[in-house]
Every structure is written in C-alpha cells, then in structure tokens.
Design brief:
CATH architecture of the largest domain: 3-Layer(aba) Sandwich
Number of helices: 9
Number of domains: 2
Helix content: 25-40%
CATH superfamily of the largest domain: Dihydrofolate Reductase, subunit A
Radius of gyration: 22 Å
CATH topology of the largest domain: Dihydrofolate Reductase, subunit A
Distance between the termini: 34 Å
Largest sheet: 9 strands, mixed
Oligomer: single chain
CATH class of the largest domain: Alpha Beta
Shape: elongated
Bound molecules: ligand AOF, zinc ion
Structural class: alpha/beta
Mean pLDDT: 94
Order of helices and strands: HEEHEHEHEHEHEHEEEHEHEEE
Strand order of the largest sheet: 10-9-8-7-11-6-12-14-13
C-alpha cells in the first residue's frame, strides 16, 4: 500500500526532475505515516532525505521507497547514510537502481537494517524511461499524434486543428506536463503556431524544439520574450532562439544533442515527416495515438507514417483510454 502511495508522488513530479528519476518515499512508524518525501529537482535532496527531514525522529520506522536508495555521492550525499543515521529499521523499495553500483543494500544490511525488494510491474515499466535515457545518453522519446481513422494528421490543405475533442486535448496537455520538451518540424511550427504548453492542466512550460534543415525558420511573435525555452536545431544560428547548430539531422543525432542540452523526456508532436523519420530510425520509446471518429480521405499526404519501403515494427499495447468519442492508444516499442 505505502509503495503505491509513494508512487503517486512520482506521478506528480514526473517531468520536473531533469536527468534524475522522480522518486517517492513514505516513512511509517507503528502504522502512522511520519514522513513523506519526493525528489523535486535535479541537484536537490533525494526523496528519502526529504521524508527523513519531515519525520524528525524516524528511529525504528519503516521506509518505503519507489526506487532503491542510492549509495553514491553524486550532486547530493548517499541516501543510505541518511537512512542509517536516522536509525530506520526496515527499508522496502520497488525498483532496483541498476544505474548505480549495487552496494547500497549490503551497506544498509551491514548496519542491521532489514531490506526488502518488492517488485511492482507498473513501477518497473515507469522507470524504464529513466534507465533508457541514462544508459543511452538520449532522452526517453514519446511520439504523440492525433489522427483520423484513416491515419491522416491533416487534410490536403494542411488543416489539423481540432481533429480530436476537448477532452483529448486536455489529456495532451497532461502528457506535455510530464515531458521536458516538445519537438516539431519547421513546417508544423510555421503552419500551426503551436504553443506546446500545458495550460489546460498546469503552468508547466516544456521547452519548444523546432528542427529545420534549411535554417530558414520564422520565429513567431508569441515565442519572442516568452517564458518558454525555445530551441532551434538547424545549420546556422537563428536570432531570438537558442540554436543547436548541426549539419547532421539524423534522429539519433538530434536526440544526443537534446540530451546534452538537458532534455531527458522528449515528446514529438509531428508533423508526418518528423514522425516518420523517428519511427523509421527506431528513435522512439512510446507512441501515444489519439484516434478521432473521422474519415478524411484525400491524397496520401499527411499520413502519420509513410516510408519508401514497408518494414514491420512490432509494438506492445500498454494502455487504452477513451476521451468522449476519441480513443487513446499507448504503445511501447520493444527493445531492439
Ligand atoms: C535516490 N533517491 O530520490 C533519487 C535517486 O546527483 P544526485 O546525487 O542527485 O544522484 C542522482 C542519481 O541518484 C540518479 O542518477 C539516480 O540513479 C539516483 N536517484 N536516488 O536514492 C532519489 N532521485
Ligand atoms: Zn539517494
């Protein structure tokens, strides 16, 4: 029970911890919660330390944590030391932190603490994103698209606004809220003027990333002096934007550059050319598709995925949800 509650804290803080994982922690003594903590921001105190601070006297208490307490000195001191110093009797955690050395459990046990690893499928799946980005030095990538049933992102004139209903659009904002940055291609940027923020659900403003191979991008007025970080990936510096200059536009390279710029959870919102390139090059982890109850027809342009040759990509369906008459399907890509 306490692990699931600690995981609620993780859900609330996803998207704000930079390259660190979101972690939740609850300390319980004699059936009473005496401390709650979450890791809030890269470089600041870990969840366990926050919870111990709140508890004050945590002697003989049990600490529940979504992730194995760290035993390393990174930007902050090891959590294991704080746990030992606080006199905690038992530690229960859900997910091993395989990105660190595995000395923490033994270290705590050597100090008489009972340590229990209690695996949880949902939490495991959740932390895959963190491990993927930490091991590969690229962001976890979510592709998001809203489409008609015949797979079109826009009509032949390029109109795509309001394909899906209001409830879906709110959900997209919740999805953006959980990411550090949202990427679009130059033409989507220029046609749609997307804000790419999360205003329907929060004040969170993910960075806006525009990819332009020509470098000729017209920055909209709304993006000048806005609170939103604006990153252009292009062949030459663009005034009014933070430009990452490159001549290599392969999706893998773009991801590497964005990770170096501090982005660890990236959402890609199209258009079809960008989506198709990232899919074809296997540069994604999750696909979230919103299907509107519409058929559009027209030319073969603006289909969300098109390549020169067909090649089967197997996906794993991880969630189905309904927003009024729209359907949201979430898929994970298998490890290649
Ligand atoms: C925990 N509790 O709340 C988090 C952990 O540079 P630092 O000191 O912030 O350490 C970052 C690493 O610690 C990070 O890569 C991950 O392995 C782990 N995160 N560990 O015990 C926490 N956020
Ligand atoms: Zn720690």
């Amino acid at each position: 029970m306490y692990i699931e509650q600690a995981f609620e804290l993780v859900k609330m803080t996803t998207g704000q911890t930079g390259r660190n994982p979101a972690v939740g922690c609850i300390i319980v003594k004699e059936g009473v919660i005496i401390g709650i903590g979450a890791h809030l921001k890269e470089g600041t105190a870990h969840a366990e330390v926050q919870a111990i601070r709140m508890a004050g006297d945590a002697r003989d208490a049990t600490l529940y944590c979504t992730l194995e307490p760290c035993n390393h000195r990174g930007k902050t001191p090891p959590c294991t030391e704080a746990i030992i110093a606080a006199g905690i009797k038992k530690v229960v955690f859900a997910e091993r932190d395989t990105s660190l050395d595995n000395t923490g459990i033994r270290h705590m046990e050597a100090h008489g603490i009972t340590v229990e690893h209690r695996p949880n499928e949902i939490i495991s799946r959740y932390y895959e994103a963190f491990f993927i980005s930490k091991e590969t030095n690229r962001p976890f990538v979510t592709l998001k698209l809203a489409t008609t049933l015949d797979g079109k992102l826009a009509d032949d004139a390029g109109n795509s606004k309001w394909l899906t209903g209001e409830a879906s659009r709110r959900d997209v904002h919740a999805l953006r809220h959980r990411h550090d940055a949202v990427l679009v291609g130059r033409s989507t940027y220029e046609v749609d003027h997307p804000k790419l923020d999360a205003r329907h659900v929060s004040d969170k403003i993910p960075a806006k990333v525009i990819v332009t191979q020509s470098g000729d991008v017209e920055i909209h007025n709304q993006d000048i002096d806005s609170a939103q970080r604006l990153i252009v990936i292009g062949p030459k510096p663009v005034e009014q934007a933070e430009t990452i200059v490159t001549d290599d536009f392969r999706p893998a390279r773009i991801l590497e550059l964005l990770f170096q710029a501090g982005i660890s959870r990236l959402m890609i919102e199209g258009g079809s050319r960008v989506l198709s390139e990232f899919i074809e090059q296997d540069c994604f982890d999750e696909i979230v598709i919103y299907y509107a109850p519409k058929l559009l027809g027209g030319t073969l342009n603006n289909r969300f995925y098109h390549t020169l040759e067909s090649r089967m990509i197997d996906l794993e369906l991880t969630d189905v949800a309904r927003f009024d008459d729209d359907i949201r399907l979430t898929y994970r890509k298998g490890q290649t």
